[in-house]
Design brief:
The chain is 26% helix and 36% strand. It is an alpha+beta fold. The chain has two domains: 248 residues, no CATH class; 103 residues, no CATH class. Strand 1, helix 1 and strand 2 form a beta-alpha-beta unit. The chain is globular. The two termini are 21 Å apart.
């Protein structure tokens, strides 16, 4: 269940629980926007019911995520049953998007579940208000928390990811950072480096004078969604969103911690590329499925709404038409996708699919 952050979460959760029996687990989170195969909505509740003879679903909730990420994940995993006979396990992970620990969370989940348990999910959001983004599990609404859904079965769910951005700059090294606040790139103020890198491109493609855009404005937020950073992963880039600039110091505040020494490039993705990347994530799921897809959960970044405007629904429509299956998803504050052999699982401005085969 994905519910608009403007609603009272406990009331919505109680309403859903009143419609299902005691054996049905209910999980979800707040969302700035949600969607199903029926419609996309800025305000509303998206509910999907999953029942299966071939998959087993076990849920757990743990709090204290930002203070002790490893401990919260440990508590959640310990709450899951141990008597699982199905040969394959995957997981869905939902967490408070204001905790700022997406990468630590992905690594902690991998460490606890093991390197062969792939997982996907998203960070709860609140329409870019940055005030409250709780998660739900059964009758509980909890902030600074994580929900795990262990999916066990005779088949593996299909997890795909795509972002549609390309590098447009030289690489820079993070030389001064405090958590998620990057002060300097190559010894220069990070915000100045970003402006220097995007200035000509923004003017040529959009007619925007970057130096005239006020810090804290909606126009700057849109530019920072259009021109994000990417970490080179070899064949692809992992996207990192500079959520805001700190004018007094010239620093950039990201949605997640950035380690010192990280090498970043400016990435650019236009509306058409973003829509195409969402459709490609769905197409990849179809090609990987041995048979038909029964349904899918979709996790897509809330900041893409700033980039898409009304075209966001077009991206969702592309996913739905490609899958030809029921879909439920929401606009996140970051996406989780950890596949076998990977060492990093937190994403920004990316489409992640968790599809169940028939």
């Amino acid at each position: 269940m994905f519910a608009s952050s403007g609603f009272d979460a406990e009331t919505v959760l109680a309403g859903v629980n009143a419609l299902v029996d005691d054996e049905t687990a209910v999980v979800g989170c707040t969302a700035g926007g949600a969607f199903t195969e029926e419609q996309s909505m800025d305000t509303g509740v998206a509910v999907t019911l999953v029942t299966s003879d071939s998959f087993r679903f076990d849920t757990a909730l743990a709090v204290g995520l930002s203070e002790n990420t490893r401990g919260a994940v440990r508590d959640a995993v310990r709450a899951l049953p141990e008597d699982i006979e199905e040969p394959y396990q995957s997981a869905i992970v939902l967490h408070d998007g204001l905790s700022g620990v997406g990468e630590q969370l992905s690594l902690s989940v991998q460490r606890r579940l093991g390197p062969y348990v792939e997982f996907a999910g998203g960070a709860a959001s609140d329409g870019l208000r940055m005030e409250s983004a709780p998660v739900f599990c059964d009758e509980s609404v909890a902030e600074d928390a994580v929900v795990l859904v262990l999916v066990s079965g005779e088949k593996r769910p299909i997890i795909t990811v795509n972002h549609g951005h390309s590098p447009i700059s030289e690489p820079w090294e993070v030389t001064d950072v405090s958590g998620n606040v990057v002060h300097e790139l190559n010894g220069e103020p990070a915000f100045d480096v970003w402006k220097d890198a995007v200035r000509d491109h923004a003017m040529e493609t959009s007619g925007i004078a970057v130096d005239d855009v006020p810090v804290g404005s909606a126009d700057l937020r849109r530019l920072m969604v259009t021109y994000l950073f990417g970490i080179d992963q070899g064949e692809t880039f992992k996207i990192r969103w500079p959520r805001t600039a700190i004018e007094e110091t010239g620093a950039l505040q990201f949605a997640v911690d950035i380690p010192e020494g990280t090498v970043l490039r400016i990435m650019h993705g236009n509306r058409a590329d973003q829509i195409a990347s969402a459709e490609q994530a769905a197409a990849d799921a179809v090609s990987l499925c041995d048979g038909n897809i029964a349904g899918a959960f979709v996790y897509d970044c809330a900041c893409r709404q700033l980039l898409f405007d009304d075209a966001f629904s077009a991206a969702v429509d592309g996913i739905i038409s490609t899958l030809s299956a029921p879909v439920a998803g929401f606009e996140t504050y970051g996406e989780l996708c950890m596949q076998a052999g990977q060492l990093s699982g937190f994403h920004n401005t990316t489409t992640v699919l968790f599809a169940l085969p028939e």
